[in-house]
Structures are given as structure tokens and as C-alpha cells.
């Protein structure tokens, strides 16, 4: 298969995300965690596959590799989609430090959507953790659309819940919530990085190293 113009060999059972990480290409994830089944819910791991005008965005965490597959991980279309997804997530849970860090890393400086300030982004990590690692199945999804929520069966505390705290440990909203001063807007921006300046002249970024924008800082010197 081909990743960002480079022909590579990968294992048959890998996903695009696993292949990219093996070759040192960083792809942001939120609902993905090693040891748990891929959910593809947050969609932050989207990449662009295909050639020419016949391309599409897919979630790399659950898309299997195949012979001849052409993948581009940091095109303008991909980065635009990821930034919009971060905006949507921040509009739902602006107090999450995990989301604020993602916004800073991607150069998201504002949120154009109505802020709800919920306590859950419905990523499903806690549900999969409880079922797959703890073997309890004490919580799950209920409802549809805007009524969708994570809850124990019948909204009553489950008898099989072990009070282990694994659901809170893995939650990107509960974990590492920012305790700093209140920002003037939804986006904190305290850790803001320079977004890829190479996208101004190219359809793909020119490198995949952290921290992005370092080449710009060095050029300014």
C-alpha cells in the first residue's frame, strides 16, 4: 500500500491507523485505545483514501489495510475535517483538558457552534472498557439522536458494577480537566501551537513531526 506517497509493507490484519503509527505518522485519536475494540465514533482519525478525484474520508482506526490502498493522512481536506470535529466536541464539553489540548495542537482558535457544556461526548470508551476489560457490562448506550446517553440498564445502578473507577479513568472528559483561569472564549488557547504553514502552498503537509510549526519558527530566526 501507499502512505503519503511512500510505498510500504504492512501486516494483513492491521488497520490504516496501526500501519501509519508503525511508520511514525501521528494521527489524532480520541475514542481509540489499544486493548479495546475500535469504535470509529469520534472520527478524529479520518484519512483520505483513493486517487485523483475519486477519494473519500474514512476512519483509520477501523478501516483494514489492503493491497494497493492509497492513503493520505494530512491533506487540506483531512485537516479541515479534524478541526471541525474538534470544534463540535469542544462545543459539547469545553471543560475537558483533553479536548483543549487537541484544539491547541490542531490550531483551533474558536468554536462556531452553540456551546452546550455537557459532561459526555458519547465516545463510548467507558462502555467498551467496562465490557471488554472489566467484564461487567454495567453501563451502555441508551436512546437515539440527541437523546443518546451512557447509563446503566433502566437507569438503575447495576448489581454487577464493581466501583472500580475504570470508566472515569479512561474518560477524556473526566480525566485531566483544566483547572486554570477562565479563558475569554470557549477555546483556552494557552498551549496553542502554530498550525502547518506548508498547507498554504501544498495540499499535504510536508512533514509529520511534532511540534508542527517548528520549521516556521526556525525560519523566522
Keyphrases for this structure?
25% helix; 221 residues; Ubiquitin-like (UB roll); Alpha-Beta Plaits; two-stranded antiparallel sheet
Give the low-confidence spans: none
Largest sheet: 5 strands, mixed
Distance between the termini: 39 Å
The CATH architecture designation of the largest domain is Roll
Number of strands: 7
Total helix count? Answer: 6
Helix content: 10-25%
Tally of discrete structural domains = 2
Say what the CATH topology of the largest domain is: Ubiquitin-like (UB roll)
* Class of secondary structure makeup: alpha+beta
Could you tell me the strand content as a percent range? 5-15%
With strands numbered from the N-terminus, the spatial order across the biggest sheet is: 2-1-5-3-4
> Rounded to an integer, what's the Rg over CA atoms?
19 Å
The CATH class designation of the largest domain is Alpha Beta
Give helix and strand order, one letter per element, not per position: EEHEEEHHHEEHH
Silhouette: globular
The whole-number mean of residue pLDDT values reads: 88
Question: How is the secondary structure organized here?
Answer:
Layout: E1 2-3, E2 6-7, H1 16-22, E3 46-51, E4 54-59, E5 70-72, H2 76-92, H3 97-106, H4 125-133, E6 140-142, E7 149-151, H5 166-170, H6 214-220
Parallel strand pairs: 1-5
Antiparallel strand pairs: 1-2, 3-4, 3-5, 6-7
Amino acid at each position: 500500500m501507499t502512505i503519503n506517497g511512500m510505498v510500504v509493507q504492512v501486516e494483513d490484519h492491521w488497520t490504516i491507523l496501526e500501519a501509519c503509527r508503525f511508520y511514525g505518522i501521528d494521527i489524532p485519536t480520541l475514542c481509540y485505545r489499544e486493548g479495546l475494540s475500535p469504535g470509529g465514533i469520534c472520527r478524529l482519525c479520518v484519512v483520505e483514501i483513493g486517487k485523483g478525484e475519486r477519494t473519500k474520508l474514512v476512519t483509520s482506526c477501523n478501516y483494514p489495510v489492503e493491497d494497493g490502498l492509497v492513503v493520505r493522512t494530512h491533506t487540506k481536506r483531512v485537516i479541515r475535517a479534524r478541526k471541525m470535529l474538534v470544534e463540535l466536541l469542544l462545543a459539547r464539553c469545553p471543560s475537558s483538558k483533553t479536548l483543549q489540548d487537541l484544539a491547541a495542537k490542531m490550531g483551533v482558535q474558536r468554536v462556531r457552534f452553540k456551546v452546550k457544556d455537557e459532561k459526555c461526548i458519547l465516545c463510548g470508551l467507558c462502555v467498551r472498557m467496562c465490557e471488554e476489560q472489566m467484564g461487567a457490562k454495567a453501563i451502555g448506550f441508551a436512546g437515539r439522536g440527541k437523546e443518546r446517553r451512557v447509563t446503566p440498564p433502566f437507569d438503575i445502578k447495576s448489581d454487577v458494577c464493581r466501583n472500580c473507577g475504570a470508566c472515569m479513568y479512561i474518560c477524556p472528559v473526566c480525566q485531566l480537566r483544566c483547572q486554570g483561569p477562565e479563558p475569554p472564549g470557549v477555546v483556552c488557547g494557552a498551549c496553542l501551537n502554530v498550525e502547518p504553514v506548508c498547507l498554504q502552498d501544498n495540499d499535504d503537509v510536508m512533514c509529520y513531526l511534532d511540534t508542527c510549526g517548528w520549521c516556521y519558527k526556525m525560519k523566522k530566526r
